[in-house]
Amino acid sequence: MLIVHHLNNSRSQRVLWMLEELGVEYEIKRYQRDPKTMLAPAELRAVHPLGKSPIVTDDGMTIAESGAIIEYLVDRYGQGRFAPPPGVSPERVRYNYWMHYAEGSAMPPLLLKLVALRIGSAKMPFFVKPVARRIAATMQSSFIDPQLKLHFGYVEGELAKSEWFAGNEFSAADVQMSFPLEAASHRAGAKKLPHIRAFLERIHARPAYRRALERGGKYDFAD
Q: Domain GST N-terminal, which positions (predicted)?
């Protein structure tokens, strides 16, 4: 039986969604973030040395990284669904691009945004806090927010060309892109852009997405 090592409010939610789209039977082993640090618990290191979620175990294999997991699931269980045929078609090139863009380009500025926000609200000595807050505010205004604006504008323009990231058909690239856009909506106001907002509304309305939420539990980014 395929097992998803599922961390609350994390990228592993999109793995559950992919499995629901595929109709694959699976079990969930749940892990909770530390309420103070928001880090994954140490028990995950017994599954994979980095102790990060998502991780799946299937047929004696342990697979980490959400993009690698989703590609594995589609290759093994998709039966030609959820990915354009292999080759050099425009759809396949776009599919490959967005599968990598999600973590390689979209997530780094969102992570920096999260770090800057936490610096601003963190408990620290009174004589350190003003300096830390100024540094965090400068990071946001001079680099992080301009980068987010650049990426949001780019994604908005691409979604204006087609409903889905690889073209006119829903694919695993849309599953992979869901987390950065949900995080961007939650942390940085990306849902103000009409095509991004419409994309999020489309994916949140999918029956498989709703089933994954029911199985995965509380997931703040789906708001």
A: 1-81
- The reported pLDDT for the residue numbered 124 is 57
Cβ 217 vs Cβ 223: under 8 Å: no
**Helix and strand tally (H, E) in the chain?**
9, 4
CB 66 within 8 A of CB 176: yes
In 11-146, beta strands by DSSP E: 26-31, 55-58, 61-64
- Does residue 113 or residue 120 have the better pLDDT? 113
Q: Does domain 2-77 have CATH number 3.40.640.10?
A: no
pTM reported for the whole predicted model: 0.93
Please name the CATH architecture into which domain 90-206 falls: Up-down Bundle (1.20)
Scan for tokens 């509380």, then name that residue.
218
Q: Is the pLDDT of residue 223 over 70?
A: no
User: How crowded is the C-beta side of 9, counted as CA atoms within 13 Å?
Assistant: 13
> Is omega for the bond preceding 146 within 30 degrees of 0, making it cis?
no
Q: Please tell me whether residue 167 adopts helix, strand or coil conformation.
A: strand
Task: Please state, in angstroms and rounded to a whole number, the distance separating the CA atoms of residues 22 and 77.
Answer: 7
d(CA 10, CA 6): 8
Confidence at residue 84, expressed as pLDDT on a 0 to 100 scale: 96
